[in-house]
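Our preliminary data section would be incomplete without showing what the modeling component actually yields. Below, a chain of 388 amino acids is followed by its predicted structure, encoded as tokens that our downstream tools consume directly.
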Amino acid sequence: MHDRELLREFARSGSEPVFEALVERYVGLVYSAALRQVRDAQHAEDITQAVFILLARKAAILPAGTVLSGWLLKTTRYAASNHIRAAVRRAQREQEAVMQSTLNESDSAIWEKLAPCLDEVITLLGDADRNVIALRYFENRPWREVAGLMHVTEDAAQKRVARSLDKLRALFAKRGVTLSAELIASAVAANSVQAVPPGMVKAISVLAATKGAAVSTSTLTLNVLKIMAWSKASTAIVIGVAAVLTVGTTAIIVKHKNQPGHPPAPSTAQPVTAGETQFPKSAWHFAGYANPESVLMTCMWAMDHGDTTTMLASFSPSELERTKGQQIITAEARQSYAQMTGYRIVDKQVMSEDKVAFVVKTAGQERTAHLLIERIDGEWKYAGTTEN
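Predicted structure:
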């Protein structure tokens, strides 16, 4: 049965054997991704368990067309990041697990360079790029299947994978790992999915079928749910506002209660013409808050300059309250944001005199966001995303 059919059947019946089929299909992928990041077999098992509990909970609501391997890699990154941050706060150093001991020396040297940051850079890719990499090199699917799942021809699938590999290569290069796309592809295909501990499939299936009720990983599971919820909202901000990513330990945490400086004076603003839709990065500037297009431009400019004070000055009161204490800008988000070459407004809906909804697409990141802009005391402010 296909993934979608298994998920639909599990959502309908709660059948443990049905869910076990999904676990058996993907547990190696999830466990290996977790192990690369936390480097501890027991913790990797806990994270793997949490990820499949989340899958069980979300089986009925995953969007049609979801590539399950891509979704699982992204969710595993959230879970692993949550674990790492907790470990840092507790100041506990976990013993590194010995990885890839059976590889020959040349392959081992390449893999040892890639493994520590593979899951980080995979998460920084857009969904489309991450999905084709997952299908081709993590699952090792033939081109025919990759093309079928992406709803393109085999030739188009190969070109898309080549572009995605090049983006992956560039992200590795920024982290000091300089390898060709071919070597990266070969190493990931050969080493990214490892054997899991005996009995793990059955243990996870039993727990996940009950959706993790009263198990020791419930705290981790709940934390990852919160991270996923925040990430969904921040996807819009990555594109249109603040590029908030909740990964890694290099975050620049900006608290609302400690914001130095002041935003640019309103007199320096150069408002955007209402109705304008195309905005190359070279044209971004402080545009003030005179109309919806202007506050969107101001947010983009503020992120590009790392100006958190102006960013927060562009938020509505409700958005300021919702994001209070959250990470507003991270170092990794800035790196991801730097790949953008511009944005365009593809749809504008005037919901009322004081409320406008935008659909925004970016160039360079190939993402789409649904943004809400509201007029507060005569000025337009970013008020979050219109997505559920």
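The chain has two domains: 3-216, 233-385. The beta strands are 278-280, 342-352, 355-363, 368-376, 379-385. Preliminary results of this kind motivate Aim 1 of the renewal.
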